[in-house]
Amino acid sequence: MTLEISEVTKRFGKFKAVDQLSLSIPEQEMFGFLGANGAGKTTTFRMILGLLEATDGQITWDNKPIDYSTSSLIGYLPEERGLYPKLKVKDQIVYLARLRGMSKQDSLKELDYWLNRFKVPEYKEKKVEELSKGNQQKIQFITAVIHKPKLLILDEPFSGLDPVNVEQLKEAVLELKKKGTTIVFSSHRMEHVEEMCEHLCIMHKGSPVVHGSLKEIKRSFGKKNLVIHSDFDLSFLSKYPGVTKAKETPEGIQLQIEKEEVAEQILKEIVGKGFIRKFVLEEPSLNDIFIEKVGASYE
Hints:
The chain is α/β, with parallel strands linked by helices. Helices cover 32% and strands 29% of the residues. It has helices at residues 41-48, 89-99, 104-117, 133-145, 163-178, 190-196, 214-221, 260-270, 286-294; strands at 3-12, 15-25, 30-34, 56-61, 64-65, 74-77, 151-155, 182-187, 199-204, 207-213, 224-230, 243-248, 252-257, 276-282.
């Protein structure tokens, strides 16, 4: 059951929100969408869900178009929250689960499971408006997964959450993936995508600028990061051959280097000059790759 996006374009008047996007998202995969605000992520999600019609191209899941007949197989957590503030959590969830074809009994059983999972069983009888933003987000998440969807779309699921809640939600998402759900999520936090996704797409102004498996993207980038902490001055390394970027830190220096061999030469250069506390060669971060491809820092 692969999600296929083939040459999809979405125009609003003369504005192209998404421009000839082609992606294939395999079953039971966690796929990350990255991009600044306005890059076309949410528009793409709305087209996948059938809420917006593509101007050109097509989107299929399991070789079939997505329509009302498939909606019970899909879960969606929108970026802008959509819960009824005056309703009790229990009534809200049961209502939305019934729309997805679940019985009241099954939906209450699932609700109990998730509330216990998030350690908040007492929220069942509370009104949504009585909950903090982070806890409303948990309820919103439960509404997206209560019917055990095969495809789950999460738009900025961790935005505005404190670190404890981020971890709880991340664990829940990873557990769903283990159970076989295909998950597509967007974030503007590189580290979340880096930590959780095998494949990703970085969008910029409606077009994919980087797309593929995380490992391959990092490998093909070529450049590496070198972190050195020492008790002597390392500033001379910023002009060293093969160093493309340098940033001095209180502990030492962070370098971006063209290839691994440069690290070897640098090590020979600094050994014997003083005490070296740390010398670590790291993969490039997604942020490094984004800056290189888009020509701007990412926020």
